[in-house]
UniProtKB/TrEMBL annotation:
SUPFAM superfamilies: NAD(P)-binding Rossmann-fold domains, TrkA C-terminal domain-like
Source organism, top-level taxon: Bacteria
InterPro entries found in the cross-reference section: NAD(P)-bd_dom_sf, RCK_C_sf, RCK_N, Trk_Ktr_HKT_K-transport
Domain RCK N-terminal: 3-118
GO biological process, one term: potassium ion transport
Protein name: Potassium transporter
């Protein structure tokens, strides 16, 4: 896919670099020469422009990419103006970053395809880690339901998958397992490498270091962690 990312601060820089590393074509734009210099060798193209200027913004191939992302966060006025100009130019797929509730409310008035809330999402993820007190990652489906990946608790090691009773006891659906295998790298150092087990036979035993991926309600995950 092709992306334009406007705003190459910390958030935009990481976004551009990661998308490019995954094989996507990324065009970056920022008013700061130093920010453009820092990313230009890692993405397809980078422009030094003031995206709040309509004429300057027209330099970008806005209608020949899949998604335009407004990653500007700290400059509220610039973010809003760029979003407005993109809508004016009838760019079909616009994502924009919001740094707080007011920023989000204003962006919502433009009926953008997606509003990104990285600070809010990061805070929520930290709360979940602190709440569970475990090595876990969570993806929020809606207000109630989550997909959560976590390292298998020690007390589960050695049990068969069908003995965990996650569904019956905690109303959590086990949807995946990542197996931890010990491998040796080119320097002779032993490392743990995870790979997905696509099938979960009933007689599959849980190993130390495995990761489970489950789906369910947040309060059910809380009950699960309290119980173990």
């Amino acid at each position: 896919m092709k992306y334009i990312i406007i705003g190459l601060g910390n958030y935009g820089h990481v976004l551009a670099e990661e998308l490019s590393a995954l094989g996507h074509e990324v065009i970056g734009a920022d008013i700061s020469e130093s920010r453009v210099d820092a990313i230009k060798d890692k993405i397809a193209t980078a422009f030094i422009i003031d995206a709040t200027d309509e004429q300057a913004l027209s330099v970008l191939p806005l209608n020949s990419v899949d998604i335009v992302i407004v990653a500007i966060g700290e400059n509220f006025g610039a973010s809003i103006r760029v979003a407005a100009l993109l809508k004016q130019k009838k760019v079909p797929h616009i994502y924009a970053r919001a740094i707080d509730a007011v920023h989000r409310s204003v962006l919502e008035a433009f009926s953008l395809e997606k509003i990104l809330t990285p600070e809010e999402d990061a805070a929520r993820s930290l709360v979940q880690v602190l709440d569970f007190g475990a090595n876990m990652e969570a993806f929020r489906i809606d207000a109630e339901y989550y997909v959560v990946k976590f390292t298998v608790p020690e007390k589960f090691v050695g049990y068969f998958v069908n003995e965990l009773n996650l569904d019956e006891e905690f109303h959590l659906k086990l949807i995946g397992l990542k197996r931890a295998d010990k491998v040796t790298n080119c320097l002779g150092v032993s490392l743990m490498e995870l790979h997905v087990k696509n099938e979960l036979p009933a007689d599959e035993k849980v190993h130390e270091g495995d990761e489970l991926v489950c789906y369910g309600k947040y309060h059910d995950f809380q009950a699960f962690w309290k119980a173990i």
